[in-house]
Amino acid sequence: MPVVRDLRVLLRLRNFRRLLVVRLLSQGADGVYQIALAAYVVFSPEKQTSATAIASAMAILLLPYSLVGPFAGVLLDRWRRRQVFLYGNLVRALMASATAVLIVSDVPDWLFYVSALCVTAVNRFVLAGLSAALPRVVDPERLVIANSLSPTAGTLAATAGGGLAFVVRLAVADSDAAVVLLGAGLYLCGALASLRMAPELLGPDRELVQPRLSTALTGTARDLAAAVHHLAAPERRQAAWALGTMSLMRFCYGALLVMVLMLCRYTLTSDPEDGLALLGLALGFSGAGFFAAAVVTPWAAGRYGPARWIVICAAAAAVLEPALGLPFATAPMLVAAFVLGLITQGAKIATDTIVQSSVDDGFRGRIFSVYDVLFNVAFVGAAGVAALMLPPDGRSAPLVVTVAVVYGMVGALFHVKQGPSARSSSPP
C-alpha cells in the first residue's frame, strides 16, 4: 500500500519522528479539550443552546487571534520553534488545569471563556510552528508526502483525542472537568516530547533569532508588510490564491459544523447525551475522511498537481454536499462527514504544499500564522452566517444550497486565477 510505504520512508527520519510525536500529543490534547468545551457549552442539559450562542462562543474564542496571529508569525520567525513547542505546551497544560477548576466552580461564564481563550491563543503558535518546522526535518522531494501524512496524522490524533474524551466522560467520569484534566496531561507529555529535539533543529536560522521579546516585536509592522509582499510576488501568487481558496472552504466547513451541532442537539436525537454521542460518531466519520485524504492526495497531487487537486476537491464538494445534506437525516449526515473530511483535508494538504514550496524559510512562520488567522475569521464568519440562517431545529435548505454555491464558485475562481501554466505544471 503506497501510504504505508511512504510512512515507512518518513519514519526512518529520526527528527521527523520526533516532530510527529510532538504533533500527535499536542493535537490529541486539542481534541480532548475541544470535546470537553463542546460538551460543557452545547450539550449540558441545563443549557438551552442556540445557533447564535454557538456563534458567540466561537467569536469569543477565535476572533481575538485575528490580532494575535500576525504577532505569532513574527515571533515564530525569531524564536526557536522547539522552544515554542516546549513552553507553549507547558502553558496550555497549566491553563487547561485552570479551566477544569472553573468548570466545577460557581463562577461567571466570562471567566471560563477567558481561560479557554488562553489555551487556544497558545494553540496558534504551536500549530503554525509545526507547519513551519516541517521542511526542516524532511527533504524537498518528500515534502508533499510529509504534508499528506503529518498534518493528517495530527488531525486523526485530535479525532482520537475526542474519542478518548467521550470514553472518559461516558464510561469513567461524567465530568467535563475530568476530561479537561486529561487534556492537560497530554499537553504536558507534548512539552516533554519536544525535549528530544535540539533547540536549534527546527529553525529559524541563527541570524534571524532574536530572543528578547521587545526586540522581536519592534519590527512587527515592517516584517508583516515584508511577508505580504513576499507572498504577493508573481512567482508566489498561486500560493496566495490557494490560501484564499482554502479559507473560503473553511467558511463552508464552519457553517456546516454549526448546523450539525444543532441537528445533533435538537433534531436527530431528543436527549443531550445521545446528541453528544452522535456528534462523536460524526467526528469519527470525518476523521476517517481525513485518513482517506492522506491515502488519496499524494497520488492525486502527483497526477494532477496540487492546484488542480484543490479545484477537484471544491467541485466535488459543490455536487455532493447538497445531495447528502438536504435530507437532514443521520445516515446521509455521516456520509457527508466522511466526504467533507476527505475533501477539506485533501485541499489543505495541497495548500500546505504549495505554500511551503513557494515561500522562503524566514517567512514561513509569518505566512502560516496569517493562514491561521484567515481560517479563524472564515470560521467565525461562517458561524455568524449560520446563526442568521438556521432555525431552532437546525434544518436549513438555504444554508446547504448557499454552501454548495460557495464551494463551486471558489473552485471555479481558483481554476481561472492560477493560470494555464500552473494548471499544467507538475507538483512541487
Structure commentary:
- Residues 421-428 have low confidence and may be disordered.
- The chain is mainly α.
- 81% of the residues lie in helices and 0% in strands.
- The two termini are 23 Å apart.
- Helix 11 (237-267) packs antiparallel against helix 12.
- The protein has one domain (2-424): MFS general substrate transporter like domains (Growth Hormone, Chain: A), CATH 1.20.1250.20.
- It contains 17 helices and no strands.
| Mean pLDDT across every amino acid position | 84
Count of separate structural domains: 1
The helix content is: over 70%
> What global shape is seen?
globular
Q: Please give the oligomerization state of what you see.
A: single chain
The low-confidence parts are 421-428
Distance between the termini: 23 Å
Largest sheet: none
Number of helices: 17
Spatial extent as radius of gyration: 21 Å
